[in-house]
Amino acid sequence: MEDQSKLRNKYHQKDGAEGELPLFGKKKWEMSDAERVFSLQCKLYQKAKQDKGYKFYVLYDKVFQKHMLSVAWKAVKANQGSPGIDGISINDIEQGGVENYLEELGEELRTKRYRAQAVKRVMIPKANGGERPLGIPTVRDRIVQTACKLLIEPIFEADFEESSYGFRPERSSGDALGAIKGYLQEGKSEVLDADLSKYFDTIPHDKLLIGLKERISDGRILDLIGQWLKAPIYEDGQFKGGKKNKVGTPQGGVISPLLANIYLNLLDRIVNNPKSLFYQGGVKIVRYADDFVLMGKQIGEQVKEQLKSLLSRMGLSLNEQKTRTVEAKAESFDFLGFTIRYDKDLWDRNKRYWNIIPSQKSEQKIRDKIDTYLEAHGHYKGEQVSEDLNKLLRGWLNYFDIKGVSYPAVSKRRLRHYLQERLNRYYNRKSQRKCRLYGQRAFEALVEKYGLIDPTKYSSGGVRL
């Protein structure tokens, strides 16, 4: 049996303000909704872990159980998010009565009357000036997707490779960066920095279904997933796709990251297979969702061609313009918002070390967010400005300050300097002459009086997002 503490870490949910879960040994009728869901997840995970060939035949009846939908609702509510195509928001559901809403939804699922609605597509600006599509399912569909995810995630989690880090319980970008650093220290400094071309939009449904059927034999669960995959896209006032959809899973769907991991697990398995060309050549993979690198002492053309061939059989392709091979000791590369480079030691110029820092794009991104906030809030009090900016700063600092892995000290100093200049301009413009901070050193005053975070004095303590 796998140690229960590991299972606790893999599958813990929050049930309101009741704290961490689970409490093993509680009787079923004494458990909270979240504890009951967690208990089921542990059983599913353990069964899948013990029997690699086992297929789960009866799952659907658990999706519409009251406690499952209740936990799913709380997760959707915690994530907030905009209404979907039906215009119904989280607040609308609360005002109409959550219990009745979930009861009706559960009955639709039980009687198989549930049908997925169209996904509203919006375009999100990218750092490079382009846009990426984001799909917004209805709140109703997000609840059902979450319930399904809670049910099947532990099954596939038992099969996922250690080289996969994105959108998995108790795993993070920090863990991925730590693995990269470890391989670099082992001498695997030749890196194939891969970029999949429109991965989420090109996942073949038929091949994904094969991966799902390795573990799931309940046709009703497969039908649910099929509905979400083939849900029409609503964009620019018209519906697109629908039943004709044969590829893609909308970015923004609750279950999409899990489906993406299930499909790319095939890539992980092949690279890590002792019989593969990759493994025999000492090549390792570090993957975070659709972002991955191959690392070795040498990445030959044969390895690259093998990767292309494998992806082609999966119905995927590399973005040739963004995919590149680098010798990391001579040239830096970026991954998950970080820059990884081989730097000279400040104290001993004959020594070098692997330095992992926020990328220039990441530094610019937080500056842009600060600018956007200050431009939109021209007359907020210092207390409110500090509180709001702290939310931005804390998230950025926690992400990039990974204990034992990254070294963002210089980036912190640049961020502090930017805050000093930007806040001084903000409070010393003519329209702010009546403000108490006019004519003062605004950054220092906000830090001292209202608790604004000074990036150079902030430590995440190894917190990973």
Per-chain topology:
Layout lengths: L3 H7 L22 H18 L9 H4 L2 H14 L10 H7 L1 H13 L8 E7 L5 E6 L2 H19 L15 H13 L4 E6 L3 H4 L2 H9 L5 H11 L3 E3 L2 E3 L15 H17 L4 H4 L3 E5 L2 E6 L4 H13 L10 E4 L5 E3 L2 E7 L7 E7 L1 H17 L5 H19 L8 H20 L13 H9 L15
Parallel strand pairs: 1-4
Antiparallel strand pairs: 1-2, 3-7, 3-8, 4-5, 6-7, 9-10, 10-11
Helix pairs in contact: 2-4, 2-7, 4-6, 4-7, 10-12, 15-16, 15-17, 16-18
Keywords:
four-stranded mixed β-sheet; RNA-directed DNA polymerase; 465 residues; DNA/RNA_pol_sf; transferase; 12% strand; alpha+beta; disordered N terminus; nucleotidyltransferase; four-stranded antiparallel β-sheet
Question: If you had to describe this structure to a student in words, what would you say it looks like?
Answer:
The protein has 18 helices and eleven strands. By secondary structure, the protein is α+β, with helices and mostly antiparallel strands. Among the domains are: 223 residues, no CATH class; 94 residues, no CATH class. Strands 2-1-4-5 form a four-stranded mixed β-sheet, with no helix packed on it. The chain has a four-stranded antiparallel β-sheet with strand order 6-7-3-8, with helices on both faces. It has a three-stranded antiparallel β-sheet with strand order 9-10-11. Strand 9 and strand 10 form a beta hairpin. Helix 4 crosses helix 6 and helix 16 crosses helix 18. The longest helix is centred in the C-terminal third of the chain and has 20 residues. The chain is globular and about 65 Å long. The relative contact order is 0.09. It comes from Haliscomenobacter hydrossis (strain ATCC 27775 / DSM 1100 / LMG 10767 / O).
